[in-house]
Amino acid sequence: MEEKGKQAFDSVSAYLHTQLTATRSEYELLEKLNTAAEHEVNTMKTAMESTNNSMQDINKQQEELRPLLDKVDVLSSAVTEMMASAQALDEYSRALESRFKAMTRR
């Protein structure tokens, strides 16, 4: 009976040892996963901070360029109006030239 008790104790001891070893392995795996996740989060944080800084720089540059872009829009409108006026003047000169030629032929 003493031998059976020792075998039972050894079996329980082996079972508990296996369970504790598995739990320890799971804990070590979780620790490695947490470390990897922390590294990824830090990498993403750095990338987001960089992106945020870039966006702030772009917004600042856009605000600095806004007055110039507004001037470009005004100049573009003026050029369009001038081209329309030049075209109208060209058409008027052609009509005048046609009249002049018609008058000189008579």
Unreliable residue runs: none
Spatial extent as radius of gyration: 43 Å
Taking the sheet with the most strands, its summary is: none
Strands, total number = 0
User: Which range best describes the helical content: under 10%, 10-25%, 25-40%, 40-55%, 55-70% or over 70%?
Assistant: over 70%
Kindly report how far apart the N and C termini lie: 147 Å
Describe the structure.
With 106 residues, the chain is mainly alpha-helical. It has one helix and no strands. This is Biogenesis of lysosome-related organelles complex 1 subunit 2. It comes from Salpingoeca rosetta (strain ATCC 50818 / BSB-021).
What is the topological layout?
Layout: H1 2-105
Record keyword descriptors for this entry:
106 residues; mainly alpha; 98% helix; 0% strand
Can you describe this structure in just a few lines?
The protein is an all-alpha fold and 106 residues long.
